[in-house]
Amino acid sequence: MAQKFTTNQYLEHDARWDAVDAYANKHLLHPSRNKFHQALEFAYKNSIDKGLPDIASYPAQGKMLAIQAQIAGAKNVLEVGTLGGYAAIWIAGALPDDAKVTSIELDPHHKQVAEENIANAGLSDKVTIELGPAIDVIPRLTQEIQNGERDKFDFVFIDADKENNLAYFELALQAVRSRTPIFVDNVVRRGMVADEELARKDSRVAGIRNLIESVGANEKVEAVVVQTVSEKNYDGFLLAVVK
Predict the structure, then answer these.
(1) Torsions phi, psi for 223 (to 5 deg)
(2) Which of 95, 127, 200, 215 would bridge 99 by S-S if both were Cys, CB 3.0 to 4.6 A apart?
(3) Could you give the residue ranges of the DSSP H alpha helices within 56-188?
(4) Which domain holds residue 42?
(5) In terms of pTM, does the model score above 0.70?
(6) Which residues constitute the signal peptide according to the record (predicted)?
């Protein structure tokens, strides 16, 4: 019989995952090679101290996003869900000086804290935070693109409320170039995404399943779900590329 999950089981830890992260990070996340190391440490601590939830990307994930943005040659990044700016610092810090990150945040307090963290990192000229619901902000940004006021986005990271994952994804499709990678975070949730019964009770799981199934039927993109384990949790992300 398939394992069933309850909605309060969102975290899972395993000593092996912690050990692998500790080993790999020791060799691959060199503080001396990352000029934003102290800024990232500050961003994490300042966010917690200011009352933000402890749900930011973890270091290895932040570096993975930064590397993927470099591989894509990104110059105009769209982030949905700023939180404290931790992922934005990783991404912006890895890109050329003329690259820009536009991040969307719903909560005014989160935006304020993120701007503190980004300013401390010296990245205020590269990262702009737009306040408001992404469902409203992305169409405005798309209109600016159509008006020639900004360039199309070439890298997208979505890490916001799961109920609206598909809406954010579809809106982002209207504002990106061909071959743009789109990451959607936290789509596995300890395997809950595979539980059809739970999806009828949990709107977050339902939203994720709606995303995966709709993206699979969308001929404009190719996509895959990658499961991950780490010091933080068992989860995963959806990675799509625009044709």
Answers:
(1) -150, 160
(2) 95
(3) 59-71, 86-94, 108-120, 134-146, 165-173
(4) 15-22+34-179
(5) yes
(6) none
Q: What is the tally of structural domains in the chain? A: 1
More confident residue, 218 or 12: 218
How far is residue 31's CA from residue 34's CA, in Å, rounded to a whole number? Answer: 5
The whole-number pLDDT of residue 232 equals 84
Cβ-based neighbours of 43, under 8 Å, separated by 6 or more: 84, 85, 86, 89, 117, 118, 120, 121
The closest alpha carbon to 126, from 160, 98, 162, 151, belongs to: 98
DSSP annotation of 153 reads B
Asked, for residue 239, whether it belongs to a domain, the answer is: no
Task: Round to whole Å and give the CA distance between 101 and 126.
Answer: 6
Q: Distance between CA atoms of 101 and 79, rounded to whole angstroms?
A: 7
The answer as to whether 216 is a domain residue is no
Among candidates 36, 171, 28, 175, which has minimal Cα distance to 92? 36
CB-based contacts of 45: which residues, under 8 Å, 6+ apart? none
